[in-house]
Records
---
Amino acid sequence: MASKTSRIFLFLLVMTVSFVVLILSQEYLSKSWTIFSGKHELGWETFPLNINLWGQEEKTAVPPSVSTTAVVETPMPLLYRGNFTKLPQWDFDDVYNQDAPPRPTTCAQSLRNSQDENFKKAFLPNIRLFLHKDNINMSEWNRLSHFNNPFGFMQFKYDDVMASVKLIPKPKEPLLLPKPGGDGCVHCAVVGTAGILNGSKVGAEIDAHDYVFRMNGAVTKGYEEDVGNRTSVYVHTQHSITASRYIFGKYGYKSAPHDEGIKYVLIPEAMRDFQWLEGLFKGNESFSGPHHKKWPGAYYSGQYNENRFYVLHQDFLRYVRNRFLKSPNLNKRFWAIVRPTNGAFALFLALHTCDTVDAYGFMTDDYMKYSNYYVQKYIKTRVIFYANHDYKLEKNTWKDLHNRKIIKLYQRMEPESGTEKPK
Ligand SMILES: *[C@@H]1O[C@H](CO)[C@@H](O)[C@H](O)[C@H]1NC(C)=O
Ligand SMILES: *[C@@H]1O[C@H](CO)[C@@H](O)[C@H](O)[C@H]1NC(C)=O
Ligand SMILES: *[C@@H]1O[C@H](CO)[C@@H](O)[C@H](O)[C@H]1NC(C)=O
Ligand SMILES: *[C@@H]1O[C@H](CO)[C@@H](O)[C@H](O)[C@H]1NC(C)=O
Ligand SMILES: *[C@@H]1O[C@H](CO)[C@@H](O)[C@H](O)[C@H]1NC(C)=O
C-alpha cells in the first residue's frame, strides 16, 4: 500500500516538474499565456465576453510578445500542436482584426439590429472575413502562428504558406450587395446537406432568396424540388471540392456548383489548401499538386475568376469557434482536429454578410428520422458523427439562434415516417 502511494507521489512529482520545465521552455515565446482553464462556459449563449474588446483598434490584435518590438522581421520559432495536450489559451486568443463596415445597412429587420443581449455581446459585425496579400505581414504571421489550423498557422513554415498568401488578391467588392430594386435588405438562404431536406419541397422557397449559399456535396440536379437549383456562394475546402466527386458521384454530383457569376469561398483548413491556392493563382493549366491531379481551376467548371474568389481569414474562423462553437472536446487530447463544420462556417459567413438568414438542411433535434445526406433518398442512412466536429453543439446552436430570432432554421413539424420499415 505504502509503496503504491509513494509511486503515485513520485509520478505526480515527475509530472509537475516536467510541466514546469515545459512552461519555462515556452515562456520566451510569449510572456503571457495561460492554458485554457475550463472556466469559459461552453456555448455561445453563455460566453463571458469582455465587452471592452468591442471598440479596440486593430493594433491591439498584436500579441504582447511582439508589440513591444517596433519592427519584427523574422518568423517566430515554430510551435507544435503535439506540445499541447489541450487547446492552448493565449490572452490574445479572443482579439480579432476588424475591417471598415462593408456598407451602411438600410435594412430595418437586419440581424445586425438584433436586440438580443447575448448575441450583441458575441457578434462582431465587422470582423475581418478575408485573408489577402495586403493584410498579412510579419507581426500578423507571428500572432497567427500561435493558433492551430484553420484558426492560425501553428506548425506551418512561413515560406510554405506565404508562397500562396502573397498571391491572394484583395477582394474588389464585398461578398454580397443588396439587389437593385429590392427592399434594401440582403436575404440569404444557407443550404446544408442534411437528410431533413429530402421530401421537403422547399426548393422554390430557397431559390426565392437574394442569395443562396451551399457547401460540400451540394448536388442540386435531380433534387431541385427539395433543395432549389441556384447557388450564389459556394463554400469549400480543397478536400471537400475534390472528395465530393467520390462521395457524392453516385448521387449525381459531377462538379461544384458553377452558376454564372458565382462566388467561391475557400476555408484554408490545412497546408493542402495553401498548395491548392498557389496552383490556382499561378494559373498554369498544367499545375497539379500533391493532393489533386489537375489545375485547381478546372474543378470550378469554367467559373473560376480571381475577382470572385475569397479566402476566409483565420481570425474569422477562430472567432466563430471561440464565441459560438467552443466545444468541450477542445480540452481533450485530440483538441487540434476539433473545429466547426464547413456548414457552420458557411452559416456564420452568411450571418456576417446578409441581413436575414434562413438555414435549410442543418441538423435538428429530430435528425435521427432522416438520412445523413438529403441525396440519400432511397435508403435510410444513419447520421455519422466524426470526432473532429461537435455536431450536438452545432445542432443546439442552430436551434438557439432560431429561438433568438437571429436565423430562421428549417425544422419539420409533421411526423415523418420515412422508409424505416421494421426488419
Ligand atoms: C515539441 O514538439 C516537437 C515536435 O514534435 C518536439 O521535437 C519537441 O521536443 C517538443 N517540445 C517539448 C517541449 O515537448
Ligand atoms: C500588419 O498588419 C496588421 C493587420 O492588417 C496591421 O494592423 C499592422 O499595422 C501591420 N503592421 C505593420 C508593421 O505593417
Ligand atoms: C425521401 O422522401 C420521400 C418523399 O417524401 C420519401 O418517400 C422517402 O421515404 C424519403 N427517404 C428517406 C430515406 O427518408
Ligand atoms: C432553376 O429553375 C428555374 C425554374 O424552373 C429556371 O427558370 C432556372 O433557369 C433554373 N436555374 C438554374 C441555375 O438552373
Ligand atoms: C507550367 O507547369 C509546367 C509543368 O509543371 C511547366 O513545365 C511549365 O514551365 C509551367 N509554365 C509556366 C508558365 O509556369
Note: The radius of gyration is 23 Å.
---
Amino acid sequence: MEKKCKKCNAVKDVSEFGKHSYSKDGFRYQCKVCLKQYRISNKEKISSLVRSLLYLRITKNIAMKKILPLLALMFIITTSA
Ligand SMILES: [Zn+2]
C-alpha cells in the first residue's frame, strides 16, 4: 500500500509512515523523513526558547540583586524620615 506525504508530496510505501490511531487510514499524514525533520526543527525552537527563558531568569536575578538593596535603602530612608 502506498500513501502520499502531505508535507513533501512524495508517494511512499505506508511503512515509511508512522502509525497514527486518529487518522482515517491509521497512518500519519507526514512521512518519517518529514516527521524527523519536523522534530529536529521543533527541538531547535524549544531549545532556543528554553535558552532565552534561562537568560531572562539570569538577568532578572542580576537585576533583582541590584535593585533590592536600593529598594531596601529607599525603604529605610522613607521610614526613618
Ligand atoms: Zn514527507
Note: The radius of gyration is 26 Å.
